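Reviewers of the previous submission asked for a worked example of the structure-prediction workflow described in the proposal, so we include one complete record here. The input consisted solely of the amino acid sequence. No template or homolog information was supplied to the procedure at any stage.
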Amino acid sequence: MDTQAVIESINKDQLKSDLPRFDVGDTIDVHYRIIEGEKERIQVFQGVLISRRGRDMNEMIMVRRIVADSGVERTFPLNSPRIAKIEVVRRADARRAKLYFLRDRQGRKRRLRDRRRGLKHVAGLGKA
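From that input alone, the workflow returned the following structure tokens.
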């Protein structure tokens, strides 16, 4: 067995299996463990998933939220033991893999179109 296969087999044991299915554009809650001295607490970071990169152990997600009229982006390693859980709050329909254009938008233009249940990318949605 070559070294790359050995590394992948070791990493496969450490991958999280309890993650829900979420895509770019979805609004998610990331429950993140914060350790302060001997105390441990969980802080929830809710925002829009604007980027997803890497694979397996190296997969990272970038979540953006608005606090006091300024954007805050945070990058989380997806398989980190510090992430307690991830919940999908709202699903949205995004046509791009990276939603960096949301950084320039304000107000209602920042909203993404809702993904309808059962209907994916049906031509003519919203047109009467």
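The mean pLDDT is 84. We consider this example representative of the routine output the project will generate in years two and three.
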